Automatic annotation (TrEMBL):
Residues 16-240 form the NmrA-like domain. The keyword Ubl conjugation does not apply. The lineage of its organism: Bacteria, Thermotogati, Deinococcota, Deinococci, Deinococcales. It comes from Deinococcus aetherius. PANTHER family: PRESTALK A DIFFERENTIATION PROTEIN A (PTHR43162:SF1), PTHR43162. InterPro entries: Ergot_Alk_Oxidoreductase, NAD(P)-bd_dom_sf, NmrA-like. This is NmrA family transcriptional regulator. Keywords: Plasmid. The keyword Kinase does not apply. Residues 304-326 are annotated as: Disordered. It holds the Pfam family NmrA. It comes from the Bacteria.
């Protein structure tokens, strides 16, 4: 890969770009970024109600990833497709349904998710094995990402760090002066940047197939993250990591399989120390055509948005999970 920054606007496709997971945290940002660029968009969703606020020109195909006929219908005549793997026990089967359909239709696939990248199958197998030992519950995610990476879809595999926006699950705790999610030192990224990088890969056939790290300007620790929130909120925020509190927060925010995935992930991200490499930053900058957003900026914007909203009532404040909760 020889990435060079994009300098001129891309020609828009005549055919729609399909987005799976359009109601989720990443898919919604992909839809936003595509619409901002004026691209025709089709979403594949389970519930029309959940996309009622999208502009009328966005095509809706209703169906589930379990339904191969619905997937075939959604892919008919598209320019390219975006896939994010849902938090689902059958995630490998769902991915297999979608990837095989893209292969049959000859559609470029842009995927965002957990992946252990490397130059060839052997180096990726070694990486996957090591990663799988550290994070057994990631094994299906790693296998499905490799299925995408080796598919006949001219695939682009986006490998985002921990999302900045995960912090918003602990809004009440942040407002009470604590940042409780365990973070050793990890690459983190703004989901808006993930959406914009995906839009580039979906619209620009010149983006080479392969794996691309998506990161912010620097890796962040829990202490640094808390310091950004402290500056943004204009009051002290202490880094106070706790697994029981973290588990309770994800149960409160999501429940089910998504909560379980997040709880397990934070058991790892609390322990590791991974510095953002210049190569990873270069890949992100290439896709975005600019430097990635910083967490400090994100925290400022989010705190300003919270402050503009109705202040939380004393009852809501009391819903903050107390330190030491089990
Ligand atoms: N959190 C992080 O920091 C992080 C970092 C890197 C990678 N990841 C990975 O990102 C992925 C999750 O992405 P996300 O945060 O965007 O997920 P999300 O917010 O939970 O969204 C999941 C989307 O998939 C849809 N969906 C679920 N099951 C479906 C089915 N059977 N058929 C069709 N659509 C279905 C959901 O639709 P409904 O609205 O109908 O439910 C929703 O739109 C995971 O694989 C995770 O491992 C997360």
């Amino acid at each position: 890969m020889n990435p060079t920054a994009r300098t001129s606007p891309l020609p828009l496709p005549d055919h729609p770009v399909l987005v799976v997971g359009a109601t989720g945290s990443i898919g919604s940002q992909v839809v936003r970024a595509l619409l901002e660029r004026g691209a025709p968009v089709r979403v594949f969703v389970r519930s029309p109600q959940k996309v009622r606020d999208l502009p009328p020109e966005v095509e809706r195909v209703i169906g589930t990833l379990e339904d191969r006929e619905a997937i075939a219908r959604a892919l008919r005549g598209v320019h390219a497709a975006f896939y994010v793997s849902p938090h689902d026990a059958a995630e490998e089967t769902l991915a297999q349904n979608f990837v095989s359909a893209c292969e049959r239709e000859g559609v470029r696939l842009v995927f965002s998710g957990v992946h252990a990248d490397g130059k060839n199958r052997l180096s990726r197998l070694v990486m996957r094995t090591v990663f799988g030992l550290m994070m057994p519950h990631y094994k299906p995610k790693l296998r499905l990402a490799e299925r995408v990476r080796t598919s006949r879809t001219n695939p682009v595999v986006l490998i985002p760090g921990n999302y900045f926006q995960m912090d918003e699950v602990c809004r009440e705790e942040l407002l009470a002066g604590r940042y409780p999610l365990p973070l050793g030192l990890v690459p983190r990224v703004d989901t808006r940047d993930v959406g914009e990088a995906a839009a580039r890969a979906l619209l620009d056939p010149g983006v080479p197939s392969g794996g691309y790290a998506l990161v912010g300007p620097e890796s962040l620790s829990g202490e640094q993250t808390a310091a950004h929130w402290s500056a943004a909120l204009g009051r002290p925020v202490t880094y106070a990591p706790g697994l029981a509190v973290t588990d309770a927060i994800f149960d409160r925010a999501y429940g089910g399989r998504k909560a379980l995935d997040c709880q397990k992930s934070y058991r790892m991200v609390g322990k590791v120390k991974v510095r953002t490499s210049p190569a990873d930053l270069a890949q992100t900058t290439f896709l975005l055509g600019r430097a990635p957003r910083s967490h400090a900026e994100y925290a400022q914007e989010t705190a300003a948005r919270w402050q503009a909203e109705t202040p939380p009532t004393p009852e809501v404040r009391k819903s903050a999970v107390p330190v030491g909760a089990s």
